[in-house]
Here is the input.
Amino acid sequence: MSTNFFKDNNDLKFYVEKQIDWEPLIELTEYKYKKKDGFKNSKEALNFYKGVLDSIGEFSAKEVSPLASQIDLEHPYLENGVVKFPQVLENIFNKIKKLELYGMCLPTEVGGMNCPFLVFMLSNEIFARADVSVTAHYGFHGGMAMAMLLFSIMEGTTTFDPKKMEIQKTRFQDYIKEIIDGDAWGSMDITEPGAGSDMAALTTQGYQDDKGNWFVDGQKIFITSGHAKYHFVIARTEKRDSDDAFSGLKGLSMFLVPAFEIDKKKKRTHLATFDGVEDKMGHHGSATVSINFKKSPAYLIGQRGDGFKLMLQIMNNARVGVGFESLGICEAAYRMAKSYASKRESMGKTIDQHEMIADYLDEMYSDIQGIRALAVQGAYHEEMAQKLNLMLKFMPPEKESEKKDIEKKQKYHQERSRHLTPLLKYLASEKAVEISRRCIQIHGGYGYITEIGAEKLLRDAMVLPIYEGTSQIQSLMSMKDNLMGILKDPKKFLEKNAAAYIQTIRAPSPIYRRVAKLQILSYKALQFLMIKLAGKKFSEMTKKPFSEWESFFKEWDPKKDFAIAMLHAERLTRIIADVAIVELLANQAQKFPEREEVLSRYLERAENRCKFLYNEITKTGAGLLERLSVKGKIKN
Ligand SMILES: Cc1cc2nc3c(=O)[nH]c(=O)nc-3n(C[C@H](O)[C@H](O)[C@H](O)COP(=O)(O)OP(=O)(O)OC[C@H]3O[C@@H](n4cnc5c(N)ncnc54)[C@H](O)[C@@H]3O)c2cc1C
Here is the structure.
């Protein structure tokens, strides 16, 4: 049995010790080492981060993992309007509090450890390998305190002293302190009984009284750690102004709503009511709560109508977080399956020596390495983009040329993060389900028996493709971004295509030529969809008078005109995710020759998978779209 989930993971350590470009990230986190009480150089800082990961690795292996089956059996429950946790979880949360992990990424001046968010993400994987529901609960502390700080910075209620390199004041300072101390936590309340993916249909109301005080009315359901004291609530403040299904997004605002207050005598006054804790398939250590707000006092964040925009700011981080949670489950499932297969004998040898099982295990491991490349890079770009943004806001360089340089870097990281995040959320969560299901299969009958723990992993994994934006929503986002990117800048797309063609001939070795060929396959898939969409648009155009062509073309609306692309969005996302991974692994292999084997193993599978998906995109679906177009209903 492992005694440290960080130390025993060579692939994870490769990133921390070799691959991650820490220097720029640490410079931004430590304000170029000028911060009072900060680290003096990147080596010092990195040693500290490694120490943090090391202690989380040990804590997860020794004190969380052995309790996973007990956590699974003993659930949180509602008693007299208060959500209670079983002792086993209370003990774990108290230990996390003692380790001071709830303030891991918050600046020291508000009481945190000032670690990069990337360290928090890596810790999510380590925790999730022990028990993913503990990760969820832990994340709704520090993650929500970070959101309070970020929102306050965005709305301009945080002041910063550039001489001391310190935050002077921030709007939710007291709440942040409570969270860091482990005495409170937050939740993100979006979903309602009638609206989940379709945020434009949310109906919870935000309104003001004569004195300008804000209140919130409505019901939110399925809220992780929804027994929190501090709720970020998305509520409607403006009416939907047309029949357009998406217009409702503009009328949403973001509020911070305390669900209760506790006075000095520890008397609790409810400002919202917890209706119940859901009984669910897995994630038993995390409370999933429904909440009723009735004239609950609320604090508007930013401006009216900013709700969707503000939510997107933290949603990217949350989705990257799910990528790391998924990795944790994949790692646990793979290790459990591998260990069992190396001992279980069948027909004269251990089952890991039977070709099919060996192939499963090989693919599971290769997938994990690919997802980790995507996760680390996605998290890195997201954090760099956010930190460069803060630098431009609080400490813009005096020289215009330097400012432009930072703006350029910020845009680059933001674009990369936007590209990689839906791919990561999609692929990692789907793979967590696939890999934990394989873990059961490799265990045979034992896999189906609760005591073994394999089926728990699958039950825990099943929610990952659902929350923080379903797999289908991730696919739609990725597809739209890729196709709109081509529409906006077709020249860039052609240049990328041409560069890949050149690489198929000139790349230094056959393996890099194969990488280029896979890139071309993804461009061909995109091209196919573009041609289909344009063909449909052009045929509609020919029915219109010439004078209307220009405005007709400008009205190209992805929400209405992308039917074939929407049909194939998931297939396209799988191809683009594989290409993104292969590109990352190829970059690693050029720098670290020992990683060429990782690339080679991933590429072998990705090439054939992508060809299959490409064929599905180009050869299927016409009949379904035809049937769907008949009065908008499918005729079977
Ligand atoms: C354990 C758990 C924890 C959760 N935690 C939170 C939380 O902390 N905060 C919060 O606000 N919510 C939370 N949720 C809710 C979760 O985010 C939603 O369930 C999710 O967003 C999906 O919404 P829905 O359930 O309404 O499904 P729907 O939106 O009704 O979707 C149903 C199905 O239709 C698909 N679908 C919907 N629209 C489209 C489309 N345009 N194209 C193709 N397919 C589509 C979906 O992908 C899905 O497969 C949690 C849920 C669970 C189970």
Observations:
- The first helix runs from residue 10 to 19.
